[in-house]
Amino acid sequence: MSVNVADSIDRQIIDALRADGRRPFRQIASELGVSESTVRSRFARLSELGILQVVGLAGLHGVGAVEGHIAIQIVGASAHSVAQRLAQLPEVKLVAEAVGAADLILDVVFQNLSDFQRFIKIELPAYEGVRKVEFLRTGEIVKDSYVWAS
Predict the structure, then answer these.
(1) What letters, b where the CB count within 10 A reaches 16 and e where it falls short, cover 57-89?
(2) Closest CA to 11 of 41, 48, 52
(3) Following DSSP, what letter does each residue of 30-47 receive, concatenated?
(4) Residues in Cβ contact with 79 at an 8 Å cutoff, skipping those fewer than 6 apart
């Protein structure tokens, strides 16, 4: 279900929580020039609609995990059916159907490089319809920002 965020106040609340998910509603309200109850009710609405989720994220590089982004071309099978099967794997953190050179995009996290390589070289190519697998591993994060421009 796709729901548009109603206005710039909603976007600013989301941006404030992206920067610090533990920021008090009172502080956000003060920064935006609205009441704390406005922030609280909008947070509740955005959460209920599934637009906003506040979660803790691990710095995966810091804990030694191996993460990667994988682009997959599918031929002779349904990209959706392959996506559904891949989504069941615990190491697969994101599965998205894509438009362009790839049919699916995956974000994966493995405990070590050996498991990552086995997945790329052996497991993925064994799926029916998987024609081409390309992967990227991230290095130094230069920018990690998902805030709307006001």
Answers:
(1) eeeeeeeeebbbebbbbbeeeebeebbeebeee
(2) 52
(3) HHHTS-HHHHHHHHHHHH
(4) 97, 103, 104, 129
Encoded tokens for 74: 């599918």
Question: Among 122, 131, 144, which Cα is nearest to 104's?
Answer: 131
Q: Are 9 and 42 in contact (CB under 8 A)?
A: yes
Length of the chain: 150
* Nearest alpha-carbon partner for 124 in 100, 108, 141, 146: 108
Q: What is the pLDDT of residues 71-126, one digit of tens each?
A: 999 999 999 999 999 999 999 999 999 999 999 999 999 988 899 999 999 999 99
Collapsing DSSP to helix, strand or coil, 22 comes out as coil
pTM for this entry: 0.67
Identify the burial level of 106 via C-beta atoms within 10 angstroms of its C-beta, where 0-12 means exposed, 13-18 middle and 19 or more buried.
buried
